[in-house]
Structure formats: C-alpha cells, structure tokens
Amino acid sequence: MTRLDANAVARQVEMILGRLTSLATLPQVAAGYLPHLVGGRISAAAMTDIIESDPALTARILSLAAQQGIEFSAAQPSVAEAVAKLPAAAVRDAVLSVKVFQVFEADTDPDARRILPRKQLALFSLATACCARQIAEVLLPEDQRQMAFTAGLLSNVGILALDEVMPKSLEKIISEARDRQESLAAVERRHLGLDHILLGKRLAESWSLPREITVALWLQSTDLESLQPSLPGIMLARIVRLATAIVRHSELGHNGDFDTPPTIAEATAGLSIASPQIEQIRTELPDKLAHRAQALGLEMKNAATVYLDMLADTAARLAGDNTALETRNRQAMTQASQLDFIQAFVRGVGLEMSAVEIAAHLAQCWQQRYQTGTVCVVMQRDPSDPFAEMISLDGSGRSRSILLKIPADGTIVPDSLRKQFGVAELAEASPWIVEQLDFDLAEARIAPLLVGPRAIGAVIFQNRIPIDVHQQAAAVAASAAVAAHVLAGRLAQQRHSDYAEQFADLLGHAKESRSRQEQSQSLSAITDVAAGAAHELNTPLTVISGRAQLLYEVETDDSKRGMLKQIQDRSAEISDIVTDLMHFAKPMPPSPQTATVQSLIEAAAKIAAEKHGVAKLELEAVGIAELGMVFVDPGQVTDAIVRILLNAVESYKGENGPVRVEAGAAGEGRAVLHIRDNGCGMDAETLKKVFQPFFSAKPAGRKRGMGLSHAQRLLAVNDAAIRIASEPDKGTTVTIELPRQ
Fold first, then answer.
1. Structural domains for the chain
2. Is the pLDDT of residue 487 over 90?
3. Which terminal residue of the chain, N or C, has fewer Cβ atoms less than 10 Å from its own Cβ?
4. Per-residue model confidence as pLDDT tens digits over 411-440
5. Which of 459, 435, 452 has its CA nearest to residue 383?
6. How far is CA 461 from the centre of its chain?
7. Of 28, 20, 24, nearest in space to 50 by CA
8. Which residues contact 23 (CB under 8 A, 6 or more apart)?
9. Cβ-count burial of 46 within 10 angstroms (0-12 exposed, 13-18 middle, 19+ buried)?
10. Would strands 619-622 and 659-663 be described as parallel, antiparallel, or unpaired?
11. How crowded is the C-beta side of 293, counted as CA atoms within 13 Å?
C-alpha cells in the first residue's frame, strides 16, 4: 500500500468512526441492567456496579457527564459520581442508546467461532481494569485508584469500535496477526494506516472522556521512558501497560495480540512496585475477575432469550417517554429555525468540536436559515492535500461524509470566486465535484469559504428560493466569511494536534533507533516538523488576525467585539509560538564578523535584565576582557547567551542571581567562557533532556521549553559549542566555545 493510499484508508476509517457515538455491549450485560430501568425508578447503586464494569456503558456515561457539564467533587471523574449527579432519565436514555451485540447460545453461537470472540475481549478488558486497580492500590492515593480501573477497562475501545463498524475487515486483520504471530496494532497500521490505539485516543477526545484517560489510552504502548514523568496521564499509562502485560501472561481473555508479550520486568519500568507485590496481584487477579464477571452477567445462560424478553417489557414502558422526547426535539428545532444564522452558528461551535463537526453544524444552520434542500460543506485541510472532505445534510436531516479526489488540474473554488466572493452554478464552476457524487444536486449552487485569498472550502446547496446569484451572494457573504474563519481556525488547531502526534510517534520509535545515530536523526525530524508547522500556520494566522481587527473596528455589539478581541489575542499568542518554531527550525544564515567576547556578554546582560523585568542582573564577570576577539554573528550569539543567562537567573527561587561569567582555558582557535549559577540545579535525567525542544522542568504552562535548545541551535550554526554540567541544589555551569576566525 502506497503512503497516499494508506492516508486515504486511514481517513476513511476516521470518518466512519467519527459518526460512532457509542460502543455495543453484550446481551448478557443488557439483560442485567434492563430490570433496573423499569418501574419508574432507577437503582443508582445497581446501575453503577454494571456500568463501571462495561467499556461501552462507562464511555457513554462519562461522555454524557462531560456534555452536561457535571462538576465532580473528587480530583478525578468517576462513573459512580456521574450516575449519582446525572438525572435518572438521562442515565436511562444513555444506557438504552447503547446498542447490543447480539450473540446466540449453544451450538449456533457465532461469537465462539470468531478468532477474537467479543466475550473474550470483554473478559480481557475487565481483567485489565481489575489488575490496574490492584496496581493503583500500591502506587496511587485512594481518590485516584478508580480512575486506573476505568483506564484499564477502556484500554481496548479502539478494537471495540473497529469491531462495531468494520467487523469483517477486523476479522481478517486479527487472522493475519495470528498467522504471523504479530501484535494487532502492527497489522492494523499496514492495512488501515493507523491502529486501534490511536483510534481509541481520538474516540476518547470526540466523546470528551477525562483527559488523563485519553492520554493513557494514547500512550499505553509508546516509549513511556522518553516522556516527561509529569505529563498528565503518564502514570495511568504505565499502570495500564503493566496491567495489560500481567493479564496477557495470565491468559485471562484475549485482546487480539499474538506477538510475544513484554516481560513483567519490562512493563514495570518507571513504577515503584516490587516483585512480591506483583506476584500477589497475579495470584489474586483470577478471583477478582470472576467476581466482577459474575456481577456483570458474562457467564449468564440463555442471555439472548432473557434479553429479548426484558427488551419487550422495557420498550412498552418507555414508549410514552420516547414520544414526549421526540415532541420536545421537534419543538426545539422549530425554535432554532428562528435564530439568526451567525448567532446560531457561533453559539453552536463548542471548544472540543472537530473541523468535521463544525462543518456538519454549518450545513445544518445553512439549511435552516436559507431554506435550502441538500447542503454540503466541502473543506480542504491543506492547499497541497489531494483530497477534500464533504459533509452533506439532505432535506430529511440525514448526514454522511464523503472523501473527494481533487483532480490535478482542478480546485474546489474557481479563480473567479476566489478573487471576488460570489455564488455560482455548481455544474459550471466545479463540474468535477458533480461527477464524483452518487446523489442528485439539481439546481446546486456553490459559495466559497474564503480566508483572504485562500479558499479553504465551499458550501454547496440546492437552491429552493427564486433569487439570482448576485442577490444570493450579498445575502450569504457575511455568513460565509464568519464560517470560513471559524473553520480555518479549527483546521489550524487540528494541524497542531497532528504535529503533536508526529512528535509522539518520533519519540515512540526513538527506542528502536538509538543505535543508529538517534540524536541527530531525531533533531532533524523535529526541525522538519517544526518548520512545516510554522510555515503552514503563519499565513492563516496573519489573515485571521487582520480580519478580526477589521471586524473589531466596525463592530458595535459589545459581545461580538469581545469575541473578536479574543481571536486577536489568541492569534498573537500562536504567532509568538510560530516565530519561535521558525527561528528554531530554520535560523537565519549567520553573518559572522569580529566582535569582543566582552561586548557580547554586556549586550546579552542588558537584554536579559529587560526580559527578566529588572534594572540589572547580579552578574560578575571575571577575565572576560582577556578573551579578546571572536568571529561570529553577534546578534545570534548574543541571543543564545541571553537565553542561557535567563535560564541561570530563573534557577533561583524569587531572586535574580548571582551569575558568574568567567574565562576558561583557551583552546586552539577557540575562546572559552563559563556561565555559572548556584541555583536549583538539575538531576541526571533532566540533564539528558535539557537540549530537547519543548522540554522544561518547570510546571506545565509556564514556558515553552525552547530556551536552551534554541541557544544550542544558534551556537551550532556559528560553529560554536555548548556543554552543561549540573547537580541538584548545587547549581549549573554552562561552557561555551566560540571560534576566533
């Protein structure tokens, strides 16, 4: 499979899974919870025991709690508190919305004949959850242990989702994994372009599951030892990794992996847990799993028959409630149709919505406001992307997603509409789109979504009102402009997320490539990604900021002015990050000239004091004048020294020094100086990562972690060198060697 084909397959899978709102549960589980949903009252305790032991129900309830803004009293969300705080009707409807994976009993049981029976996967997930809880009882405080259980339970949601939407393809992939004795993820990446682990992470994001669980699902199989220990969710990821290894060695259920599992010692890396404790966990695990499995009903006989009987009774009792709910939904849609388009669109865009979700929301608002037939929103993630995504909404409210191949000589929006906004007949403006559709778009028109001169996509709609294209363009120009800028901003954010995943992927493969010039290869890859990210974001950021400023100056509504001011402020923050990335990835070629080391130190000390917000640094220079002249780019080397001085000053808690700069032993053709502080210092692990971009030993959110890595980059392009020695609580010494010619 070529890289382009793999990318297309991966995106098709993502689009399919993007419509998945929940997983399916087993009929044994459904037969267990249905009796608790009838009779007018719901037993919260009984429902909690069932929900928190089933991946599909757990994910659905936690997602619902996030959607309804439930505030949890504990440090971390739990299923028990979500069930207690959600309205009983909401819990009932959420549980009933979860589909049931139908299996049959006795000799006709098709699930038992599958390579990976759904029941075995359920047992594996439950065993991982029980094991993770046992490990957490050794390592975590009481209020964090249930989160470990939940993370273990949801560790295989990606497999469950694939089994939901493409069971036959998954069956073939599992068969190949068995025949080749490989991990399931490795075979998935070959056939789908991505694996169930990444899909699980994206589903968790889509369903707004707790952030720690999302990170744990994502990082459970990566090289955790290469990541910061303070990263939220890293401890959960390590616990889930160890729990998975123990369950695989204990052969409790199956998760589709047929490779040799990691040893318990390997899986224990980074965790302070002794071998006797692990052995006790392994000994107790089968009994704990059996207790949970029995409570969940996994061993129930004639489950399908019991479930169908319960379902018939429950459906009759809930018919009245469902009718009332449908009536309220129709009333809500009627009221929503009265709202102004821009107000409805902006208010409906949530912070966690993806670009595809925003596009679907745009299609809905467009259809309601302009009384059109089918509405399609087409968007191109990147100007060089050979594909475009189309999200369509027909007159009945049914939506679907399509991946369009853009012809080599074609564009979504013709040049005439890019130069000046307008509405045109689709068949004339972009006939290649019509050719790739399998449904009728008679009398369709196209309105571009423009951000400056760039078209990020278009709105295609069936015209139902007799109005010429010029009048129609005037009527929808403002709506299309607002929608385009919102959609462009979200696409830029998603590109940031994609680059972050690329960073994580590089870290995950670093362990295998350490023996093949790991450090130079990783730096080259990171600078390429950083340069790409900066280049891609710079132009849309400039346009977004400029358009927001123009709209702010003419806007009179205080609420809208506030939103526009927010756009300007956030654009400025991202612009700073982009500038830092660009300077790191591709620093300007140096313009070397002769300069004294003393002049470089004096200039750097003055700039560092200004940046630190003090009149003068507590700086002591010894023997610097004797170092004489060096041959470097004064601006770049001064910038590097500024970053080093700031790092030294910030190593003191609440103080500004002192910092000592002194001449070192002269090398051949080199001037050597040492910059010393007596601050907090660094341990050996921190020292290994000190030149890594974005690494910082400070709390998350304080700095971007580019100081020393950027300093190293600037010195390197000037044929200079930097070394660091440090000990905790004893300070740090930075040694710099500068060329004399």
1. 3-296 (1.10.3210.10), 341-481 (3.30.450.40), 514-585 (1.10.287), 593-739 (3.30.565.10)
2. no
3. C
4. 888 888 888 888 888 888 888 888 887 777
5. 452
6. 32
7. 28
8. 55, 56, 59, 60, 98, 99, 157, 160, 161, 164
9. middle
10. parallel
11. 21
